[in-house]
Amino acid sequence: MILRNIEENEIDSVIKATTPEKSTLKDILESWINEGITKLEWCFVVEEDDNILGRLIYGVFDNSLKILDIWMQNFNDETKEKLLSDSLKIMKLQGFNNVECHLYSDKNNFQQYVRALTSLNFKITQEKKSFIWEEEIINSLSGDVYFSTLGQVGSRKFINAIEKVTEGTLDEDDLAWVKEFGSKEAAIKYFNLLKDIDYNEDWWKLAYNEEHELLGLIVSQRLTESIGGINYIGVIPEKRGQGYINYLVIEGVKTLKDNNIKKVIADIDVKNYPLDAVLQKQGFKLDCTMLVLKLDL
């Protein structure tokens, strides 16, 4: 049994041999490579007698190492050791100090992947709910709420808004970043992390009332040709509890739908009960749960 990198001329065949039902992964992987999120030296397979037993793709967002994709045919110790332990040693030699993985509960053999990672000392740091919106009609609200795009306000003002909406957040991961880096540096890191995913200045928006007071922000992003995500949303502390989050959700969905996005994903902390209720009110349906796992190398 050997661990090796995926070659450029075999991307399609590797995916077909492992998860043929995920044929779109070929296009996604090639886009990750083209955008510099990953490279072939970070894409691994475990092979025995010309049979692929496992696949693992690492990528980087804002200098942070992520497991973007993982698949194993079986979960025995030898496969796990080769695919995970050996590849992590290689990534550590390349200068990475930690790694993060997001596992969705609708993934085949979800619990086995969780056990495989936790057996290697990955820690579950957050649990999220994943909601999807696939409706035809977008709700509308009356009221004087106005939106300005990132292109109109500039990055400094947008980063300041991220810092403000993160204050008192119910998101465990956000709280951990603020604790580790401080509120300003955490806001800058969030901004850069989101830019690595998808950067369209017209889709990132700040919300204001008629007195031009900041209310909150919404970051809508394209994930694939037809799938988008609401990847950051928040109301500043002094404006919470007044229903403004509804305007942000609706604006985020409208931005995506107006740009031919058919499916909108929103992942939120399981303890964010207010946003949970608003998403359901605005037509989102619970799809699955997601675990965030992290490991220091």
TrEMBL record:
One Pfam family hit: Acetyltransf_1
Record domain N-acetyltransferase: where: 165-297
A GO MF term: acyltransferase activity, transferring groups other than amino-acyl groups
InterPro entries: Acyl_CoA_acyltransferase, GNAT_dom
Protein name listed in UniProt: N-acetyltransferase domain-containing protein
